[in-house]
Amino acid sequence: MDATLLAELIAFCGIETEFNDAWGNPTTVSQQHQLALLQAQGFDTEDDETAALQLLQRQLDFWQQPLQAVSVQRQDEPVQLLLQVNLEQANSELALILTTEHGDEQHFKLIPVEGELVQVVVLDEVEYHQYQHRLPLTLTAGYHQLHIADTDIKQKLIITPGRCYQPDAFTQRKQWGIALQLYALRSERNWGIGDFTDLATTIKYLAGVGADFVGLNPIHALYPAMPESASPYSPSSRRWLNISYIDVSAMPGFAACARTQSLVNAPVFRTALQTQRSKDYVDYSGVMQLKLPVMKSLYQWFTEQDKTGNKAQLKAFKQFKADGGASLQQLALYDALHAYLYQQDSMHWGWPNWPEQYRQPQSAAVQQFAKQHKAELDFYCYLQFIAQQQLAQAQQVAKDAGMLLGLYRDLAVGVSEASTEIWANPDLYCRDASVGAPPDPLGPAGQNWGLPPMYPYQLYKQGYQPIIDLLRANMQAAGALRIDHVMALLRLWWVPKTAENAGGGAYVYYPIMDLLGILALESQRHQAVIIGEDLGTVPDGIRELLGEYGVYSYRVFFFETAADGGYISPAHYPQQAMATLTTHDLPTLIGFWHCDDLRLGKELGLYKDDAQLQNLYAQRHANKQRILDSLHGHAFKGQSILPPDYERSVDHLGMDSTLNYAMQRHLAATSSQLLCLQLEDALQMTQPVNIPGTSTEYPNWRRKLSQPIEQWSQNSDILQLFTDISARRNG
């Protein structure tokens, strides 16, 4: 390909050809990988003339619009308007109407050429000018609209605050909480998977020992027809909830419905229920086989209430469906159609593999299915209604118990290719590439997450509405939101499907200032604290920018090392951060100390050779010694974290309760505003939640906690640990 044309294409698509890797080494993306990414974005890289024409069409699509589709501006700056016109239109007067989100209108007129000329381009022999005007307006933060009178040309004008929400209470003391995988909660009453009632019970206990929040894995909607597709980070829809978390016994009518009681009291059902409770790993298919028939029975009972009363709940459901709009109906339609097709043929794992007539939601076949299965669609809407109610109730329990934040939710970085999000909005996603990560300490071979990325330009053309909707949905019933892979606001590592491995990709840039502004606006409106998972390859200056916008950094103890290899004192962590010892992608404390993750990685073939593995073992040994040195070298209010006579060499030191809890107490003294510990470590568990870079090789997202809440909540050692943590956070 011609070098000039290639450079223009690369620049237009926002592809980064040079970057510093996770170890700080300069890296250049090969031309082969550059071309592969251009192909993934729809350019014909085999024919320069065709590629040039494709580029021209996309450029004209932008420049031939007098108003940009969306403009994001800060509330503390003058309102600016960019007008794009060809040379002949530069002196033509334009009448504009501003409509605020409250419906107020302001009218004004502008002549483009009277503004500041900021850019000139010539496309297809036509000269286009871009002029900037300062508007005589004062706007509150929110979503407004500009449009040119007597035309359908409109712009979404988003005015944003300069920072995300931070509670006033943050100035008075520091907070802490526990992260858990909701599915992993065991109890003597659940149906084989943790549910919203288990969550509420856990919240009550943790609030009682001084915790301020409970962090959840993503609870996004998955696939009821294929329960084993259980990764919370490969969802079907990030706007809706995973219905497997519903406590069926808390649904309306459970005790009153004779038909339901007959189902759940049948000996075969009770035996199956006990089997699911006793399993150490969640059997998603078995759980749904128990829950769905009972849910359908209770939905039928609910619909019968038209004749018997309960008008308040019926009215609330009707309002819920109205508020959910097309997105809710889309999810219900997908789930119903997926179940219908998957029962016929297990090859119909998702819409890309469905019969042709069902691959577009607007098709006649899909619409006919919707009409014929209206009640089933309504059933799936009802399950979302119940899930939202039960989640909100859990958050209310947290607030009533005195937690400052309550639920701390997690927003996944993308959706799977088979998702309802992509089925409903295929133009937004690049299905010829996947999101991932270049080689880094977490994934030495790089990572391919199998999640099609959004096209930045399509996201802009849609007025950023998909992002707005995601943020709004995930800030519901939450005091804080974790943005998984927050670097996605700036750039994502795209791996073309043609690449040999995850390293065969490049970074593609996104409009970070616009996205940060929207994040700040929604954060303030929902009063949700934002934590950005800023691990991996982070460009210079980005953490500082996120900090300016009030986004809390994510500091993992194992990664916070100094130049000499020692561990940074938690007292020196940044204040605007959440500190944590480990994460769902890392081994537990015991697993780390005993190198269980390295042994498991060898069994699963995650290392390129034995030399790499031996190097990791040597590094781990050195890290453990540094950790032990840190624990012996620090004290809290004059009291040593470890007993004075505790072993000082790791050569023959196994992890015990003393060391495990000492590490958690050590981090509790962090200067960071937020501290998040893993429930698995309090229970002294060994097996990890997830092993990055694996799918079927390890039972990711299935391992339950080792004890039910009825047992561990009575453990005096755990109570003492959490009491000590609270004392250190308040000290």
From TrEMBL:
Xref: InterPro entries: GH (IPR017853), Glyco_hydro_77 (IPR003385), MalQ_N (IPR048458)
Catalytic activity: Transfers a segment of a (1->4)-alpha-D-glucan to a new position in an acceptor, which may be glucose or a (1->4)-alpha-D-glucan
Domain MalQ N-terminal beta-sandwich: 67-161
Keyword Coiled coil found: no
Gene3D superfamilies hit by this protein: Glycosidases (3.20.20.80)
GO process annotations (BP): carbohydrate metabolic process
EC number from the UniProt entry: 2.4.1.25
Pfam families in alphabetical order: Glyco_hydro_77, MalQ_N
Keyword field contains Cytoplasm: no
GO molecular function, one term: 4-alpha-glucanotransferase activity
The entry's keywords: Carbohydrate metabolism, Glycosyltransferase, Transferase
Family statement: Belongs to the disproportionating enzyme family.
Protein name: 4-alpha-glucanotransferase
Organism this protein belongs to: Rheinheimera lutimaris
Gene behind the chain: malQ
